[in-house]
């Protein structure tokens, strides 16, 4: 049976989608119905799933996470397929959306005018202020392109026989002009910008390193979290809910699996 290694963050791991995968490090939120498991079943592959919530490009290449070695250590050179969904935590994408949702809820609790409320909340919760700072997100994006290219190049070296596929993030937010409540319009627009740039950087990294790209974001524009047929969850409260807020649901994982299977034909 051919070997398949799946690498990435929570957008590949599938936190909250039941059932949980057995043997995963505690806290990784790895689902037995995430897209790596579905692809392995469809293509009859021997899956090694090292996806983990919170993973960054550093966790793919160098850093241990939740007691597990860097994800790239799972490669032994015999792989025929490697998938990579990474980069969002480097640029604070999902944390940005979580922060915006928390701020939207806090606005209803803190008295005063909107601008004054936002400043008060940002002072009380400086991490939220940083995540919603466009300059800070731009700086993070400026560094992430090279990090993604390093991932692609390193995986190509370690798995020279494999089809290496970057899989970008499913679309979470609705299009401009459509409410993403409880997110403020300005926060939602920042989220859209970060998502668009991350898609561009992922595609560029794939092209620069001889990897394939599966454009899950483009395929899911009409299946955002506020749509009638969502592939991701919106701002569901209280936490935790299933699936995790701003993450793929079971339908989204199945859709991404379909895209990957199609890309192998």
UniProtKB/TrEMBL annotation:
Residues 6-255 form the SGNH hydrolase-type esterase domain. InterPro entries: SEST-like (IPR037460), SGNH_hydro (IPR013830), SGNH_hydro_sf (IPR036514). It comes from the Bacteria. Residues 7-28 are annotated as: Disordered. SUPFAM superfamilies: SGNH hydrolase. Keywords: Disulfide bond, Hydrolase. GO terms for biological process: triglyceride catabolic process. GO terms for molecular function: triacylglycerol lipase activity. CDD domains: SEST_like. The active site is at 10 (nucleophile), 247. Disulfide bonds join 28-52. This is Hydrolase.
């Amino acid at each position: 049976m051919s070997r398949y290694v799946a690498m990435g963050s929570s957008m590949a791991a599938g936190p909250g989608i039941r059932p949980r995968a057995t043997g995963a490090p505690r806290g990784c939120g790895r689902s037995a119905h995430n897209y790596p498991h579905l692809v392995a079943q469809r293509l009859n592959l021997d899956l090694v799933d090292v996806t983990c919530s919170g993973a960054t490009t550093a966790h793919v290449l160098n850093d241990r996470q939740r007691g597990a070695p860097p994800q790239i250590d799972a490669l032994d050179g015999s792989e025929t397929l490697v998938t990579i969904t990474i980069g969002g935590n480097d640029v604070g994408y999902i944390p940005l959306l979580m922060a915006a949702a928390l701020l939207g809820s806090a606005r209803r609790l803190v008295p005063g005018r909107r601008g004054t409320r936002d400043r008060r909340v940002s002072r009380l919760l400086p991490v939220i202020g940083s995540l919603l700072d466009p300059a800070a997100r731009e700086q993070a994006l400026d560094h992430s392109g090279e990090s993604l290219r390093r991932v692609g190049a390193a995986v190509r070296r370690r798995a020279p026989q494999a089809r290496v596929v970057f899989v970008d993030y499913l679309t979470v937010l609705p299009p401009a002009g459509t409410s993403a409540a409880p997110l403020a319009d300005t926060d939602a627009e920042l989220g859209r910008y970060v998502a668009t740039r991350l898609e561009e950087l992922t595609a560029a990294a794939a092209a620069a390193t001889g990897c394939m790209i599966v454009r899950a974001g483009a395929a899911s524009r009409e299946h955002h979290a506020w749509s009638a047929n969502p592939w991701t969850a919106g701002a569901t409260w209280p936490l935790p809910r299933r699936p995790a807020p701003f993450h793929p649901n079971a339908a989204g994982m199945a859709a991404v699996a379909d895209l990957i299977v199609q890309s192998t034909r």
